[in-house]
Design a protein that fits this description.
The protein is mainly alpha-helical and about 280 residues long. It has twelve helices and two strands.
């Protein structure tokens, strides 16, 4: 049966009381996952390059069903939309007690080792992390779920990281500027194709993660920026993940799952100004 891999995955999730939109694709590389979602992320980042598979590439069977990617050899590849590590490291650097803690554990702002942060849960010692701990834990859980994945040409990943810090809102602004040259319909079709409505308003304008966020001021610097960003990103990943799973189940006519009851009436996906 076509897409049997997807059906088997949905069944596995249901049998193990896992909501598919909460499935952590780190499971493909790191098993068992630590209960602490931040430690799980940091351990995943420490894996050698030849161990496991990139989380956003492990969802290929879902991309094929969604019509996003044709094969493993396509130039189009999976991409993580919102980077956990970028904001996590920035929060550590911006912590008021950074100098004190960094001197004790042996890191500097130019060289922050994830292994050191992981050891003895050293990441917990930083004030900005503590102030936003539950939201950072949620983001670490959400970051490698289907709601935070899309596809891009494989050459775009490095450029996005270098120029835009892997922030999805300003990534979308650059894409909107490019696609609008073709036609307004090109931009709207792009949003609809990849279920990106949670990141734009009703008029398809991009919702910034915090005030005055742009490519001249890429990273958060104020405590409230971290709070606002984490709330927005977690809400949007979950909303989009649920909607994508609803589309997959409906397309396959696979609706006899316990988790489906939570999404069966989800006929539309929220725009940003509906949160």
């Amino acid at each position: 049966m076509e897409h049997q891999e997807v059906i088997d995955w949905l069944k596995y999730c249901d049998e193990n009381s896992i909501k598919p939109w909460e499935w952590d694709f780190k499971n493909h590389s790191l098993s068992p996952l630590p209960n602490d979602s931040i430690i799980a992320f940091l351990k995943y980042k420490q894996l050698p390059n030849n161990v496991g598979i990139d989380c956003d590439k492990a969802a290929l069977y879902l991309y094929k069903l969604l019509g996003w990617q044709e094969s493993q050899d396509s130039i189009i590849r999976g991409e993580t939309m919102n980077s956990f590590i970028t904001t996590f490291i920035e929060a550590i650097k911006n912590s008021s007690n950074f100098d004190e803690v960094s001197a004790k554990i042996g890191i500097t702002k130019k060289k922050i080792s994830v292994s050191v942060l992981c050891e003895h849960q050293n990441y917990l010692k930083f004030e900005t992390i503590q102030n936003n701990l539950e939201n950072f834990k949620s983001f670490a859980r959400n970051t490698h779920t289907i709601g935070n994945f899309t596809v891009f040409p494989n050459w775009m990943n490095c450029g996005r990281g270098l120029c835009l810090g892997d922030y999805w809102d300003i990534t979308l602004i650059s894409l909107q500027e490019f696609l609008n040259i073709l036609s307004p319909e090109a931009w709207e079709n792009f949003i609809k194709m990849y279920h990106l409505q949670p990141y734009v308003n009703f008029d398809y304008s991009v919702e910034l993660f915090w005030d005055n966020h742009d490519n001249n001021a890429i990273k958060p610097t104020k405590e409230e920026n971290f709070q606002i960003f984490l709330k927005k990103v977690n809400e949007r990943i979950e909303e989009r993940g649920k909607f994508i799973i609803k589309q997959i189940c409906d397309q396959l006519d696979q609706k006899d799952f316990h988790f489906y009851k939570e999404i069966e009436n989800m006929d539309t996906i929220k725009f940003s100004n509906e949160f």
